[in-house]
Prior knowledge:
Blueprint: H1 2-21, E1 39-43, E2 46-53, E3 56-57, E4 63-64, E5 67-73, E6 77-86, E7 93-101, E8 106-114, E9 132-138, H2 140-143, H3 145-150, E10 154-159, H4 164-183, H5 195-203, H6 222-228, H7 238-244, H8 259-266
Antiparallel strand pairs: 1-2, 2-5, 3-4, 6-7, 6-10, 7-8, 8-9
Amino acid sequence: MRWVWVVLVVLCLGILVWWFSQRPRHDRPWADDVARLLTAQVNGSMVTLNNVRNFDWRSETDYTARWETRQYDLGTLQTADLVLSYWMGPAIAHTLVSFGFADGRYLTFSSEIRKEKGEAFSAWKGFFRQYEAVMIAAQENDIIRVRSEVRGEQVYMYRLAIPPKQLRTLFMAYVEEARRIEKTPRFYNSLTSNCTTVVFQIAKQIQPDLPLDYRLLLSGYFDEYAYDQGGLVAGVPFDVLKKRGRVQSMPGVQNMANEEDYSRYIRRELPK
């Protein structure tokens, strides 16, 4: 039986050597929608973001690619919204946060895998250093619309109950996360470093005593977790918030090409 243990030890050592030999990189043949890294310059309350995504999606393979430089005044931040997009049953969702400004513009942050051309996402591969992570900042009529109208995902939006003075902290936390990824590439991990755990770690900068919870892993229930922690609009039952925040239940939304019209339209049922 000794040889069995020898084989197991050699196998484990081989896996460890392979694991630690993997290195995240920025120089791969990336898919178009994750091809560029978000970069930022901050001057007082003014933030200039380079490589904000604003694609016009006609299908998953037919689109007009646009990367833009946009400037935002953090002094005019008014709202933040939690967005959950369900693509694999009720327990798993992609988590995004969208910020609203006084001029009617919205900007959405999304922590995503950085796919290579022709590569598809696998939750299992996400455990084994097979995908780099990337922070995407995008217009809502790109990053939300592609999920609800092009991919056919179930998308829900919730107004976050965040005091105005903390909105800037939350926004800048996303900017700093993008800066860290720009400086040092990192791997996405389906368990420890995914779209929901990133939101949780950023939220802890505002509320450090947020508890750990199974709903941080089963991300499809993250909206319930946020509600239980007082993070959503108060005084409205959760099931009402979910019903009124369902994006694709709104007829005609697929025809909203203008970004400000689209953002207003998908919020028309949201409790203030």
